[in-house]
Amino acid sequence: MAESLLRSLPRLSTFLRLGAGLALVTLGALTTTAASYDLADALEAVDDTNLSVLLSRETVLQTMETATQARAGLLPNLTLDASQRRSQSASFGSTVSRNGINNRFDVGLNGRLDLLDPQTIATHQAAKIGILVARQNAESTRETVRAAVATVFLQHRRNLARLDLINADITRADALLDLAVRQRDAGVATQIDVTRAQAQLAIAQQARLQQETEVRATELQFIRLLALPVDTPVSLAPFAVTISTSESTVLVSPEDQAFAHRADYQSSAQRLEQSDLEVRAAKFNRLPSLSLNGNYGRASATAFDGEDAAVWSAGVSLSVPVFDGLRTGSLTRLALSRRRANQLRHEDLTRGISAEVQLALQDTASRRAQIQVAQTSLALAEDELELAQIRFEQGAADNREMIEAQNRLAVASDNLLGATLQYNLSRVELARVTGDVRAILREQAP
């Protein structure tokens, strides 16, 4: 039996090696490569991955094809027609007589060109402006998505930093528990001080569990915006905005910059121009149209019998509308109504952009001031914790002061982190309302 076991060892070793190799291959297949982004990469990835951006791009292509269809009326229309006809006629008199059977084969090239059609010309011009409108709408969608990506990017970085703060709170709470135990053993503190320290540690540990959920939530939001696989681990590079003491002096005011660069504003202005052309096209229905038509081909009794003869015709036609059942008047009034509606929307958008810019400037200044207040509060909380720890170590007080100081330090640290995030987000919003979210990249702190 021992000899059979010895003989089976090489075979068993081979099976084990094969199994280990299969396990390694399976593990490698299950391992997902982490997606690493800095903010610039994330903003650029929007163009090729985000659903809203991709759909807006398809809308542009559809609008271009619509304009191509509108242009078709301005180009020659050519058709190649071939037909074989066979007929028999009858004559009626005192008796009915049948004529012979007639055969005719025709093949020819027919063409038509509208030399003057004002309505078609105006419609084509409006369709070309529609392409510009669609492109501006696509750019507006892209800017909106970029702002959302930048917001989630910064929120995720904040959540990771907040997780680090909570881990620091846990470290302090654990140190407090160790100090309370030593103070109790030395007869300086009581068991209630140890219990308070244990409760403080439990609260910090619970906060960490909740924060891990927040981290995962913003990670999934980022994954969703860039259409990544849900199980893809994400690594985002740090990004911080330079906190300036005041707004930099620029030659162009933020409002003028917004009107010059906002895609939605440009789209609204172009939509007004498109409405003017639609009104003109509706009125042009009352104008005459001039067209050239003709055909050239060959005719014979049967196809390819070698006895064909040339046939052709040419002509110019003029069409003058006399009465169209009041259709032109209705189309004109409808186009004028749409023009007035677009004018109202444009005026409202102008006022809205001015308000957005002013609010963004005010919010940025306020968030900057809040960072300074949060920094002062953090410094005071650190001093308070240091003094409370000295008093507890010297037995001058129990650890309630130290616990309260730790809590205030945790709140002050979180407030500073939140104030910094809000300032960063306010700069993203200011970049968005002035027309270029990517401008936030130029504000990165060195």
Automatic annotation (TrEMBL):
Keywords: Cell outer membrane, Membrane, Transmembrane, Transmembrane beta strand, Transport. One of its GO terms (cellular component) is efflux pump complex. Signal peptide: none annotated. InterPro entries: OMP_efflux (IPR003423), TolC-like (IPR051906). The keyword Transport applies. It is found in: Cell outer membrane. Its main location: membrane. One of its GO terms (molecular function) is efflux transmembrane transporter activity. This is TolC family protein.
